[in-house]
Write a structure and sequence with these properties.
The chain is an alpha/beta fold. The chain has a single domain, classed as Spore Coat Polysaccharide Biosynthesis Protein SpsA, Chain A, CATH 3.90.550. 29% of the residues lie in helices and 19% in strands. The chain has seven helices and twelve strands. β2 and β3 form a beta hairpin.
Amino acid sequence: MVSENRNRLSVVIQAGGESKRMGRPKALVPFCGKPLLCRSLKRLGGIADELIVTSNDQKSLDFLCSQVTYDKLKMFSDTIDKRSALNGLYTALYYASYEYVAVVACDMVFPSAPLLLTEMETLDRTCADIAVPRTSHGYEPFHAVYRRSTCLPLVALALEAGEKRATSFFDQARLVEFSTEDVLKIDPRGGLFVNVNTPEELATVEKRLMNGEIVERDATADVLISCFAIQPEPTCSRQTEHACSFCA
């Protein structure tokens, strides 16, 4: 039995982007035979005490309501009509019930449960506000864990100031950064920050995954991929059943 005194984690999967370059909602686009959103549900659902999907098109996600195998899944729309990365982050923090909030974009093909758990544990140990990976391309705010009580008011102030970037308030927060080397020590499968924005990128990543290939840089899709081979899903002491029968 899991101790009731352990840290609680809200996992928020953001599925509310406009998906202009994809041409259809990214959450629903097929990847390896299942909706892309279901990859995040499968990989992260088991570590979540609360699982939230944010989307302004909840009707298109009705299939989840009939397929969920446990009751922790909730769905919410953005709190502000005007879309932006920062507004999406505010929505995630606003609706989360627990102090530690992992926020992940649904177009990340390989979201990492081990990394998110380590980020949460780091926040608890250091009393920082945000645990976030930082690569040569900058911060990865949608594969990070936030302390709700301190980050929510900071995000609100940034929104009031007209900011749109998810990282616009980072200079006001206490950060713990995870380097590429740190990330690979935690989850050596690699490719954790690969996201897909176009049908071509999706097809390229899907083909390489199906073929067991992975390269350092894909010139066609122009996405950065770790040179480490993708390994099977790790087991996790917090892992439970799948969130959705599509993920089984």
